[in-house]
Amino acid sequence: GMKVAAAGDGGGVAVYRRDPTGLTTGTIGVSAFGTLAPTGRPGVGGLPGTGTPGAVAGCDRASVGALKAMPLQGCFLPSVDPLYPGAVVSRGDLDLNGLILRPDPGVQIVLDPRRRRIDSTGKVRVILRGAGVEVTLLREKLQIQLPSAGSGATLFDFAAGNIDLAGFPIKGRVVVQLTATGVRIPLSLALPGAFGGITGDATVIAESGRGIRLDSLKLQLTRAPLGPMEIRDLLISYSGGSETWRGKATLGLPPQPGGASLGADVTFVRGRFQMGNFSLRPPFPGIAVGPKVFFTELRGGFGLDPIRINVGASFGALAVPPNLHTVTVDGDMALTVDGGTVLLTFTGAGKILGITTSRVVLNATTDGYAEMTAGYDIDLGVAALRGNLEGFLDGRRGQFGATADASVTVGPIPATGQRAAISNRGIGACYTLLDASAYVGYRFGEPIPRGARIGVGCNLSEFEIPRPGARAAQAPGAPAFTVAAGTTLQNVELTAPAGSPTVVLRAPDGSIVTPVDAGATGSFAGPASALALPAADRTLVVLRNPRPGTWAVVPVPGSPPVAQLRVARELPATRVTASVGRSGARRVLRYRVTGAAGATVRFSERGARGAVRDLGTAGGSAGRVTFSPADGPGGRREIVALVERGGIPVSAPVVARYTAGAVRRLATVRRVRATRRGSAVTVRWRGVSGAAGYLVRVRGARSGRVRARLAGSRARSIRITGLTADDGRLTVTVAARDRRGRVGRSGRSTVRG
């Protein structure tokens, strides 16, 4: 049986047999109960008790202030040690403000609410449990003296060691603070390796009798560099099982700071980034990912360890309002980081100013440069061109250029293709038509087929309307043109309102010249030939070694009238020779141009993996261009000369080659200084030549918390806020970053805590 007795203040004892072995034998147990707080009433023997305000010790609980302990099985036992009057003892698991204290076998936990002490006779596990999580924070002998038992008091303070929270390693120190309902534990959690050692902040809330509160398991990060990218406003929540965290973040694409941003859904499993998804269709011209280079649509996912993005994407470069881009690609995009260099690889179908291309592979960098290969098929009505091109894009200078093989068809007439040249202004190709070298050109944006130009000869002047006043006296009112002395090949383009004109020519001496039908004879060999191009309501007349002077064009009876006449004559071929030499760390392109009358020559550099750049236009028959090699891997580079007449490309030969060296790492940042004032630290440094920005990191020696910020190329200082007293001594590093995100050597400074 059990006997219970109590004094006037409510405190007393219960006496019972714990394991009866007979009617009158067995082990006697005694348990105290009642409050340890002063009641103002007499206790045992009528004597007034002293007590501890707010303290309670009994079978099912012991508490003082915000500290609350409950046995998870059985009762607390009263301490029989005279050194701990009023204390209780537990040999099993107990709930301490939502934490589980689990003694090793044979170990006792002694709680003394009166003295605000927790002791143990051996090692005890301190366990954080609930919401599908169980983490052993600590295992050691307890000797805890609480200076206060109020809300906010520190219950535990220890180095984290090798522990993690649902997959995220805990860094720095673990400080467990009492609350009115349990404990509050601010933590620094290490993010995956791709984050470069950056930590996120989490505050875990546990409540008595409940353990971890699921809605408190959130990890947040204001911003952190991801190689050449940046992640901002990361906020993820624990899902309650499988160590899975889900949430949202903003992904800053290179270059950072200042690059495009994407909102994304993100998932982490066991502390590793598992997946991210996003879908975005911005207004024209799109999200800038480089100078004059845009994402016009994105849909897909990304990974961070290693850094990769694989998405369905629409890419546009060199916007042409209201809604066109010079180059577009619709298909798949992969973003990879190789040696710090970000490369965007697009594959799919595309367009060049609305002209459809296929099998496009475009390697772009986030500083506005790209190389591409593609199949193309252009139907100009009067002619069709198809083949494969290799091109470059320089977003900084707004230039696009490509060379291509060309298979040309002119109606039913066989043609043998040679090489084509393409720019952001047009396309031109030299080929063999019948038995003659011929040329087809088209200026982008002009109507098809009237915007296409076909002529005999690969080095033609621009097709032009003759100056007014060139009229033949022999045929007043007839269209006329003038042939200059020494002309060996003259092209005459005749356009009618409908149909192809049929004409005879009146020579300067008054004789009548009847052009031979080149389509019927299969030859342009005679002195005068004509080729009807009905798809364009046009006829091409070709004169070989014509008599100089004014010629008249006379339609034959029944022919459509001539509405417009354009002429072009053969010019000497434009030839470009060049070589590349050194000038310190830079290169010098020396060039010579012959036969450039009426033509422009533009140079570009082309290398692997987006190592391309526009070098500018030739300034005369000879000159030099000093340039730095395009950023990219070392190896062979080519110099291409794009020759244009009237805005239409004529040719794009490779005129020089050279070998670029490996990319040099940026220099160490010097004179790093840091000053702390309260919760902020101001960092200053000396600039590095060639830096596109700086990576600044601050690490707290005591808390283990790491913060990082990106600064621009002109920045020489930055202020980082949010420091706390538990950060302790600060280590500050500053490293320069180039345009592609590669990081140089760090300079370092320390600040006392």
Task: Please name the defining characteristics of this protein.
753 residues; 57% strand; 26-stranded antiparallel beta sheet; ten-stranded antiparallel beta sheet; mainly beta
| Helix content, binned percent | under 10%
Q: Roughly how many Å apart are the termini? A: 62 Å
For the largest beta-sheet, the strand count, sense and barrel status come to: 26 strands, antiparallel
- The coarse silhouette is elongated
Unreliable stretches (pLDDT < 50, length at least 5) are 470-474
Radius of gyration: 42 Å
Average pLDDT, to the nearest integer? 82
Total count of helical runs of at least 4 residues:
1
Count of individual beta strands:
63
The fraction of residues in strands falls at over 45%
Overall structural class, as computed from helix and strand content, comes to: mainly beta
